[in-house]
Model the fold of this input.
Amino acid sequence: MNARAIDSTAATGGDASSRLGRECFHAVSLYDPDSTPYEIDLSDNTNLWGVPPAAQAAIAAIGIETIARYPAPYASSLKQSIADYLHVDPSMIVTGCGSDDVLDSAIRAFGSPGDRVAIPDPSFSMIPVFARINGLEPFLIPLGRDGGLSASAFNESGSRITYLCSPNNPTGTSLRRADIDEITSNARGIVIIDQAYAEFSGISLTDLVDEHEHVLITRTMSKAFGLAGLRIGYGIGSPDLVREVEKSRGPYKVSVVGERAAVAALGEDLAWVGSHVAQMKLNRARFIGALERLGLMPLPTDANFVLVPVANAKQVSELMKNDGVAVRSFENLYDIGGAVRITIGPWDMMDRCVSALASSLQ
Ligand SMILES: *Cc1c(COP(=O)(O)O)cnc(C)c1O
Done:
């Protein structure tokens, strides 16, 4: 078994010269994605069809004088809209400045310095960072290429917080329900299930929060709903659990503009979201066919991206960028090695991507 705690001095190459911050910050680097504008950006899994119409109209209709006042402290109208969308009670919803904020706040709410956070490897790269900046220890547990997880490795890790991501970023695979159930039933502390890509998979896990008081599901308006720039995310859990996350989060984390746009999108843009999810799936199948004709073997995916194992992932992504197409490269992923992660968008973008990828492999 390869489960391991990360050596916090070596892991991310943090700025060793900074000794003003807390000790647990020393190994943490600032998030540094390549933000050069490329003609076609397939690197961050946002909605490449853009912003849905009702959200656009809501933003345009905001009176400028509104901006001089604070928003509602815990975004009560947004909570109501999310509750209606998911058919749960608003007392089971916590919102945040992106789901990143909800994840960070939840780790801080339920973990004390020194506690372990169990995280599948590979998974969402921000989770070890949120663990560390709150003084907790990331503890990585291998995720099989087929999406299989060892429930016993999680249960034996002694973790206060368990993080699962389904569909998983960066692999795209959904976790098996049997693994989720077993890990959840035996977990010592809280279980966070990150469903940033739920709308693409069509698999809801919200029944878990009815059964278990210690489960928090997180979701976002940044992916299927096309609102990444507004930073809106949320969590679903038992009212007691949600209240603790809100204490940790603090008031006023969702802006007036973000709340109005998100409420509109959840009310009137569901058909837009659904039809673009359907279009994404068609393009994804067609794109996977094109990859296979190039001799590539992408991982099975339930999300709006595909992970494609390639030798020299860094070089492939650099060559593609020279061709105007940005994708995200990964090296040394557990059980996979090097790979590029490619967001699925309108077909003209995918067509350009296939050409750039094919010539990068020459
Ligand atoms: C994109 C993403 C998020 C964060 O999204 P926000 O924009 O902060 O809501 C969270 N988890 C995973 C797995 C993601 O891919």
Observations:
- Residues 8-13 have pLDDT under 50 and may be disordered.
